[in-house]
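Re: duplicated header lines in exported structure tokens

Our pipeline writes sequence and tokens for each protein into one text file. With two proteins the header for the second block appears twice in some exports. Here is an export where it did not happen, for reference. First protein block:
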Amino acid sequence: MNTKVVVIGGGYGGLRAIEFLAKHDNVDITLIDSNPYHYLQTEAYGYIAGRFDIHEIAIDLEKWCQGFKKKVNFHYEKATFIDYEKQSVKTQTQEFSYDYLIIATGAKTNFFSFIEGLRENSYGVKNLMRAYNFRKEFENLIYKKLQNEEFNSGEDINLAIGGAGLSGVEVAAEMAYVIESYSKTLGERAKAIKIVLIDASDTILPGMSPYIIDNTQKRLQKLGIQIMTSAFINNVDSTTIYFKNGKQLKYQFMIFTGGIKASTVDGKYSSEKNRINQLIPDKQLNINNTQNVFAIGDCVEMKDKYGNMLPPTAQIAEKSAEYVAKSILKIMIGESSKPFHAEVSGIFVALGGKYAVGEMFGFLKVKGYKAYLLKKAITYAYFLGLHLRINAGYKNRIKDQS
């Protein structure tokens, strides 16, 4: 009888784990997700600004799973409960038993409850629907300026972005670049649309290298983005952001990228979690003192070999997925795994149009068009792999129907 692996979550980590495990004939895999698509969150900046279309950032999970020739079954449902003793996962309508379980439920935007009005008056980018809604608002604003409708002439229209981490910076840069491009059709009216980037830290991209920070700051300033650091938001209403120092900012729309909160599934036993709801695993990424339940990606707290927290990025999600997939295969043949240790191999920041800043392996530093090409190549390789699997799934489905 084949080994049964259940994966909860079709994000970067979940899909990478499946790719590794599905190569083995003695493994059957079930993927459970409450969305029917895989959302490429790393490309959200381009989608929000209107440069990418929906088909460039979303992949149909059922077709993708069909590409594995019945090795992987997809269930479009929400996982509601994990019974660790019985080794089963319950959804709203079914129950799936497992030999090994991989929890890859990701994270959502953490609209801090201590900032009154933040959730009600801002958009996140972790959720595709929220990103879609902001895209509509942004395009509608451009259209109204094109028609010269609404908004008093001479009055600035502020688009606020709360959080100057990677997501916030990329969204700000792409929107500013698009607005600059529209100046050919909007003329002077385009200058009235301002991008304001806000963060409580004393720098943008906190935790990144001086090279990344300095060159990103120069690019943002060149794009005309107003940067507010050491800026603590007190509360937000439908028109104004109020800061703790008494200052105010009138705004048209607001995106919040200032934090995440892990998405998890209830279980028979409560799992140890940190302050942002991430599961705290052992050194092999097991949870709840089990040997066959793993957590990967944004929903779990991970550290490097020095004990430093690893950032919740697609890169780290994929590295943890590869580690867990290999661990499962080792356990199946009676071998043990070394503790999980990973590091960030590189980072690229998309900064509007065909411009980026990046570092790889701690010594390769690039900026401008070269960095853009490298980032694009990495993204394209990932996207191509997904589409090749979907094409195989489509062919398999046609073959089954004939």
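Second protein block, exported in the same file:
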Amino acid sequence: MRKGRIFFIIALILILGLAAVAIVYFRLLQPASSEPVAEAVTTQVVDKVEVVVVTQHTPRGYLLNETVLGVIEIPRDMLIESYFTDLTQVVGRQARVDLEANMLLTSSMVVDSPDQLSTTGSLAALSIPRGMVAISIPINRLSSVSYAPQPGDHVNVIATLLLVDLDTDYQSETPNRNAAVLGAGPGVVIGAETADEVSVDANTDMSKVTAQSVGAGPTSVIGRTEIDPLLEQTWYVVPSEAQRPRLVSQTLLQDAIVLGVGDFPLTDQVEEVPASTPEVPPVEGETESTEYTSEYPEAELAKLEPKLPDLITLIVNPQDAVTLNYLVYAGSQLTLALRPSGDDTRVQTEATTMDFLLKQYNIPVPVKLPYGIEPRVDDLLPPQLANDVVPTPEP
């Protein structure tokens, strides 16, 4: 009984000691928790500078004044040497090009006198960014999105090519043609050029036959040998037609800027007005002809009928300009795709070939059946509708 009480007292003393140690540790020895101290945020002062801008649309040649000019602040590190920083540097000068609202003025956009408007280079060159060039490519109604693109639009350029196999040495389209080589020996006459001339008889002077008497016979297309597994017969197969080119189409350029559509105006060209021809009164008994009898029918018809553009000028980098020039002279077909306004995203496209078309769009190759459609169809032609038939004018 006494021993149990002793153990109880010892256990109580240990518990109280541990409690005392814990209190001392947590209150005295543990470091005080560091509360986050709000650091003073130093606001960096951005050095700004005032530059001159246009506050409203200003046409070319307009005399600039305070009513169409204003100033805005931009960071000094964005200041370009050609920007104007004082209104007095611009007031009284003329706009060299059409200016839009909120456009930062540069020294290349203004001139001091009207005489400089026609002596400061082309207007088109002002719209080409530094490091870029402009190049023209041919277009038609189909390749130009029905003439929808206008200056300032962004387009993609799609190139379509026809590829064929070539002989590496001759650089000619395969398959090659072969000919029988007629070498020197009996039956070959010196100077023979064709197989028809190579013929000898008992009266031929064989002393004229030399080792230099070599000619070529008729040519034929080089084919290949095939073995028929059923007849075990070797056949020499030649192509039934010339090599068919293989078609491939791929996006060549993305986000090219349209600089102009059609021909640029020739500012130095003076339009010649043809002299009017005197009117001849109609003869009695004759009805007045409605046929146009002007001395310049082509010029008058050109004014009546709008001329459709056959060229478009794009702003591209110098390497893309060289590529476009190569493709134009290589005979490839260039097609434009109009981009949405403000969309500058780039999409990686895959080149379209016959194999890609069949696999990507799950187009099956038709099987050979013991029946078919009548009449025979060899070409895909659009159906002729009644409204499409143009009536033949009566004589």
